Amino acid sequence: MADAFTAKSFLVVDDFADMRSAIKGILISLGVTRIDQANNGKEAIAKLQNKHFDVILCDYNLGPGKDGQQVLEEARHRRLIGVDTIFIMITAENTREMVMGAVEYAPDSYLSKPFTKELLRTRLTKLFERKADLTKVNEALMAKDTAAAIRELDALIAAKPRNLGELLKLKSELCIDSSRLDEAMATLEQVLAIREMPWARLGIGKIQFQRKQYDQALETFRHLTEQEPNFIAAYDWLAKTQVAKRRFAEAEETLRLAVRLSPRGIQRQHTLGELALNNGHTEIAEGAYEQAVTLAKHSVLNHPALFAGLANSKSANGKYDEALKVTAEINKVFPDRPEASFYAASATALVKTRQGDKAGAEAALAEAEQVLAQLNETVHASEHALEMAKTYAGLGRADKATALLRQVIANNHDDDETLNRVVQLCQESGLDYDAETAIQEVQRDVVKTNNEGVRLIKQGEFEAAIQLLTQAANEMPGNKTINLNAAKAILMYMERRGVTEEGLRTVRCYIDRVQSLAPDDWRLADVNARLRKLTTTKG
Amino acid sequence: MDSLDFSDILASSIHDIKNSLSLILTNLEDLINNPDNHIANPRQASLLQHEARRANNNLIQLLTLYKLGQRQLAMRVTANNLADFLEEVVAENLSVCRTLDLELSCRCDPDLEGYFDLELVRGVLDSTIGNARRYARSQIEISADQEDDFLVIRVEDDGVGFPPALLNLLEYGTGRQGDSLNPGRTQLGLYFASRIAQLHRNGARQGRIQLRNGHHLPGGCFELWLP
After folding, report:
1. Taking CB atoms and an 8 Å limit, are A92 and B119 in contact across chains?
2. What phi and psi, each to the nearest 5 degrees, are found at residue B153?
3. Whose CB among A85, A226, A457, B133 lies 3.0–4.6 Å from A81's, allowing a Cys bridge?
């Protein structure tokens, strides 16, 4: 047993030196030899960047700067730690609600202080066992091969091990992420047949949501919030579904309740701010953005859009000077992010318009346009286009705003979330643009092109299919579906008629576009696998 | 930002106090386990250890009950293997029991699974074991079983058992236990345990606690029934 501990490397994070040496003492008495220490979040992140650790023991409370949850968040978000690293959060106050703020990033285990050597030994032994079983699953996940990870999980599940519940949970999550919804549903039903579990019920709702069965999803999430009033993720999903049903006022209500229960989620506060602003509840919006900006201060999730939202809501409340102070801060807080000056300028243009400073607003608008042109990107393009459209609308440039919105719709014809934001933006800005009809028109056109392409492929008319789809992809470079289908048409052509350099180059270009827009898009796995197969058989 | 939130003050004070307790406990353990140490009286050190742990359990209860009152307490029910969980509870309490010459043992089917909030139930068991330490002659046993579709976790000792008044108090109202057990009339520990039990629900069924004497061991037997 001592060997298991000797081989592992540990990182102890605590701002209190005596505490660090106490924990180190316990570890040494357990036979651990490789121990690093960090006395704050920044130092911890620096260590994680340079070295791989098997176990991280991190105190939640780290004094000023990042807290333990933010360290975990950043480590996972930036993939500084893999799924094979054990992250243990040490809490003293039993601060569940602090940790509950972030549902996406949960540690592998919690330890409450003070703990004894025996407890740590027992806990670590169990965690090592759990992670050891998952080695192959981890490897597959690291290689972004979800299908292989699920195969490994199935093999483990067949043996009905002690951590069956956990394996089923992981499997259901992976299936949902890779859009294997029937399998996910079967897995969750297997769990629910034994016992009602909130996470499993939430999974059912997510599947219904992905299948666009919004009424059923609404029912699932609503019921869940009634049964488990403290289960925050259920509120987030309920609000998301309400937005999908364009019930913006109800969505705001839901999130207002959720932030009362758990105020520490940055994304939740951000969404609430957006909704409240849209619904004309400018005070609520300002409060939510204020919270989001404060919470994000030391977080990897900090973003200029939060500041822009705060400035926007402050100016909606007539606090122009405060709003301009916020926009002035954007470039200071994000010196390394090229899009920061865009957000600063576009928000300034809005604030100055409301303030009645026409010349100032025009100057800021010109700057925003210039920075946006320089950004010249596809990454997050829709996000920036929406922000710009909001500013145009605020400055009375309805024509420019609608042109941008039309482009956003074309690039996201099947992405309900973005389309809802377009509808929301028109409402919020009082823009005279029939977004619903525009969406229907664009959807009809894109679906027609897409179907025609698929028909041509089926009939073996690859040249015609490729011509049609590549033209569409060039017109809508931000449209993931079109880009993926264009890539697929060329791949299928090459599978039958042989590989060409030109074909490979075009396919890679389309894949790169989608990759930069949505690195986690589950459809990427298929085209990447096909591309790999072609290039390996060729060489 | 500038308004002082009492729960934050409470949480941060408790954080500090627990840091201190943590250091006291770790150093005490070093003292007790160090064969070269001839200064401290091991019996005294054990007593200190025992009391420090009790103070720690009380702090957890205090904060938990405060949050419960403020409707800030969040349940995190997970599927837990009972053998693993009880093994941890025993591990954490073992050294104190040993120095008090008490045997702490555990009886459980290795495949038994249960659904409950791990940390809350751990708090209940730690404080119950802490209590049993004061009454046990030589033995404390914790066990878990599936009975009547409930999960029952028991903490027993071989002392004189609970006084009749306490046993009667819990005879009443399986549904309204919280009211009959107010913290003024009985010990905080039992009140805490009963509140935590009630927080556990499955469909229409709710958790509860029960006290009896002479179950497997001759002394007091605390039972936590979880649906």
Report:
1. no
2. -110, 125
3. A85
Cα separation, A112 vs A123, whole angstroms = 12
Block residue for tokens 């160090």: B34
Tell whether domain A9-130 is in CATH 3.40.50.2300. Answer: yes
Total residues belonging to chain B: 227
Query: Mean pLDDT, consecutive 10-residue segments, chain B of 227 residues?
Result: 64 77 80 70 75 82 80 74 90 82 91 85 90 90 92 94 79 47 60 91 86 90 93
CATH architecture of A448-537: Alpha Horseshoe (1.25)
Q: What is the largest CA-CA distance in chain B?
A: 58
Which of B81, B91, B123 shows the shortest C-beta gap to A162? B81
Confirm whether the ipTM is greater than 0.90: no
Do the two domains A9-130 and A448-537 of this chain adopt the same fold? Answer: no
Cα A436 from chain centroid (whole Å): 26
Residue B175 three-state SS: coil
Please judge whether B26 and A26 are an interchain contact, meaning their C-beta atoms are less than 8 angstroms apart: yes
Q: Give the orientation angle of helix A248-261 with respect to helix A282-296, to 10 degrees.
A: 50
Count of positions (residues) in chain A: 539
Query: Are A317 and A311 in contact, with CB atoms under 8 Å apart?
Result: no
Distances (CA, A) of A254 to A156, A239, A257, A411: 39, 6, 5, 30
Pairwise CB contact (< 8 Å): A22 & B21: no
Q: Are B18 and A113 an interchain contact pair (Cβ–Cβ within 8 Å)?
A: yes
The pTM of the full predicted model, rounded to 2 decimals, is 0.80
Query: Best mutation site among A12, A15, A60, A96 for testing chain B: the one with the most B CBs within 10 Å?
Result: A96
Q: Which residue in A414, A410, A409, A413 sits closest to A425, CA to CA?
A: A409
Domain range annotation of chain A = 9-130, 448-537
